[in-house]
């Protein structure tokens, strides 16, 4: 018997024993911890009062009464997810199994409960992260649509008009037609350049061909900022890690150029303990809010997919630090 | 002048072939992937190969890698890479074994036919042709250094040197005499601390090494 007691004491799951009157006979230390009540306090009290939220107590009592009347057991020997109540009245999601002990005399019931709060929280975080990723993807598509529509598409429409005008002029006024054709060629060059840069913004080919270091050189050269970059891994990393790292820096620096008022930025990489840390820092006006812009939110969703973390520190007047860490085996 | 073209887009390949032939060059072979290109360059040993950076079989930077192979194997064959990427990285890779007989231009430059033909000729003759946009990116990255001590005109001359233009070419572009260009070049090399006296072909690498070394 003392062996069994020791097993109950050591169990990670909560064990609650109840008599046929619905009163608590005993609980193990795990149950004491989870529900915030000692075995001494619990013993002899109605289980429904102690562990079940008020709205569900009657259902429990009816179920027990029906069972004792010889009714079909509804819950015995199954695993169910229910909500239990702690001594302080707070609720805790649990997985519950109830069995009937094979003993002489009046029946005894044992409930095994496992706190699944962490699991449910993790599931919710996963759902949230998926949803954010979906939103970020949609937002990126909308942005792409706008860029194409306002940029290259407009230019091409303009180009079609210019060509039409040139054609109309070609006989009466050849020199005007030539001027229009020159104009058309310039428009075409601008459209080509816009498309090239748009494609680079979507995913620079050099990132795939050459890795993080050359892709960041190309990025920094395009920005109207003085950027100092340190610690970029020279070796190739998993391609998804490279992409995330690249877009963290791209988004971070774009924000610096757009909102911070700073002329300079600092980008630091560090690899440590199988993690890659990336920090983008400026000494501009601060006050950045991760919830305010779609860019940072999308980035956070992307980082979350890697089981990474993204934090933004941005006290007003003191600049902004975007710090990201993602797992990255060496 | 004999040319081999490597380009997987049929339309573009035919277009390039035609404009080079119109300019009096002889297109001796056309290839649609990197392997085919290497085969044909080895067989024909042309004066210059015009190579698309992105080609089958890998559809990544296969053209660039083929171009480097040509450089290593047949140094007398000039290689002009045409690309949709304004990236220093590819240029750095291409120039690893020297800048003589090498070029890297954005694809849209093909539309500027006279200049494009001029670049093909320059590369075939052992000179260089580097896209002005990439030169601008490289120069932009050097802001705040000794480059700031150059006058606007000297910066223009430096950029054109980096593109691989000869003194005569630069003089024509800026509407000044060759003597004036020479004076600018001397001033630039002095201010940047570069060794003077290199000819048109060889100074490109000095300038690009300086610009790329940041």
- The percentage of residues in β strands of chain B lies in 5-15%
Element string of chain B (H = helix, E = strand): EHEHEHEHEHEHHHHH
* Spatial gap, N to C terminus of chain A: 52 Å
Beta-strand percent range of chain A? 15-25%
Structure in words:
- The complex is a heterodimer of chains A (about 325) and B (about 210).
- Chain A is α+β, with helices and mostly antiparallel strands and about 325 residues long.
- Chain A has three domains: about 1-115, PAS domain (Beta-Lactamase, 2-Layer Sandwich), CATH 3.30.450; about 115-200, Single alpha-helices involved in coiled-coils or other helix-helix interfaces (Up-down Bundle), CATH 1.20.5; about 205-330, Histidine kinase-like ATPase, C-terminal domain (Heat Shock Protein 90, 2-Layer Sandwich), CATH 3.30.565.
- Chain A is about 50% helix and about 20% strand.
- Chain A has eleven helices and ten strands.
- In chain A, the strands form two sheets. Chain A has a five-stranded antiparallel β-sheet with strand order 2-1-5-4-3.
- Chain B is α/β, with parallel strands linked by helices.
- Helix content of chain B is about 50%, strand content about 15%.
- Chain B is built from ten helices and six strands.
- The termini of chain B are far apart.
- The relative contact order of chain B is 0.11.
- The chains are: A alpha+beta (about 325), B alpha/beta (about 210).
- The interface between A and B is medium-sized, with 22 and 21 residues.
Write out key terms for the chains shown.
heterodimer; A: 330 residues; alpha+beta; Beta-Lactamase; Single alpha-helices involved in coiled-coils or other helix-helix interfaces; Heat Shock Protein 90; 5-stranded antiparallel beta sheet; elongated; B: alpha/beta; Rossmann fold; 2 domains; 6-stranded parallel beta sheet
């Amino acid at each position: 018997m003392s062996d069994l007691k020791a097993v109950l004491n050591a169990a990670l799951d909560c064990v609650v024993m109840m008599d046929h009157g619905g009163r608590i006979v005993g609980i193990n230390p795990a149950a004491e911890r989870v529900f915030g009540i000692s075995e001494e306090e619990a013993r002899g009290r109605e289980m429904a009062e102690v562990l079940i939220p008020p709205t569900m107590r009657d259902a429990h009592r009816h179920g027990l009464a029906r069972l004792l009347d010889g009714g079909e057991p509804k819950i015995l020997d199954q695993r169910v997810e229910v909500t239990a109540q702690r001594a302080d009245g707070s609720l805790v999601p649990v997985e519950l199994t109830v069995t009937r002990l094979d003993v002489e005399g009046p029946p005894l019931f044992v409930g095994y409960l496992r706190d699944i709060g962490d699991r449910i929280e993790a599931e919710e975080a996963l759902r949230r992260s998926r949803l954010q990723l979906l939103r970020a993807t949609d937002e990126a598509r909308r942005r792409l649509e706008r860029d194409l529509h306002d940029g290259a598409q407009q230019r091409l429409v303009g180009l079609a008009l210019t060509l039409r005008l040139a054609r109309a002029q070609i006989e009466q006024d050849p020199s005007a037609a030539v001027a229009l054709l020159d104009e058309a060629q310039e428009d075409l060059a601008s459209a080509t350049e816009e498309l090239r840069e748009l494609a680079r913004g979507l995913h620079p080919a050099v990132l795939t061909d050459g890795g993080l270091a050359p892709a960041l050189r190309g990025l920094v050269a395009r920005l109207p900022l003085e950027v100092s970059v340190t610690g970029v891994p020279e070796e190739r990393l998993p391609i998804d890690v490279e992409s995330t790292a690249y877009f963290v820096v791209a988004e971070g620096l774009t924000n610096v150029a757009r909102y911070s008022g700073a002329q300079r930025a600092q980008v630091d990489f560090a690899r440590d303990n199988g993690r890659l840390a990336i920090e983008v820092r400026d000494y501009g006006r601060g006050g950045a809010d991760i919830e305010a812009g779609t860019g940072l939110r999308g980035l956070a969703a992307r980082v979350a997919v890697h089981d990474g973390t993204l934090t933004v520190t941005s006290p007003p007047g003191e600049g902004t630090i975007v710090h990201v860490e993602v797992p990255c085996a060496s | 002048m004999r040319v081999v073209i490597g380009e997987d887009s049929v339309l573009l390949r035919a277009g390039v072939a035609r404009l080079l032939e119109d300019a009096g060059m002889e297109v001796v072979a056309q290839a649609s992937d990197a392997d085919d290109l290497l085969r044909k360059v080895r067989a024909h040993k042309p004066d210059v190969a015009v190579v698309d950076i992105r080609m089958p079989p890998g559809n990544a930077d296969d053209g660039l890698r083929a171009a480097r192979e040509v450089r290593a194997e047949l140094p007398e064959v000039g290689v002009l890479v045409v690309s949709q990427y304004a990236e220093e990285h590819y240029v750095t890779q291409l120039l690893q074994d020297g800048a003589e007989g090498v070029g890297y231009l954005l694809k849209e430059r093909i539309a500027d036919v006279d200049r494009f033909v001029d670049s093909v000729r320059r590369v075939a003759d052992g000179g260089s042709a580097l896209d002005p946009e990439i030169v601008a990116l490289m120069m932009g990255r050097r802001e705040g250094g000794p480059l700031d001590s150059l006058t606007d005109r000297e910066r223009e001359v430096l950029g054109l040197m980096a593109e691989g233009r000869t003194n005569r070419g630069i003089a024509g572009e800026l509407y000044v005499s060759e003597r004036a260009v020479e004076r600018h070049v001397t001033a630039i090399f002095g201010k940047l601390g570069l060794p003077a006296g290199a000819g048109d072909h060889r100074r490109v690498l000095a300038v690009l090494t300086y610009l790329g070394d940041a």
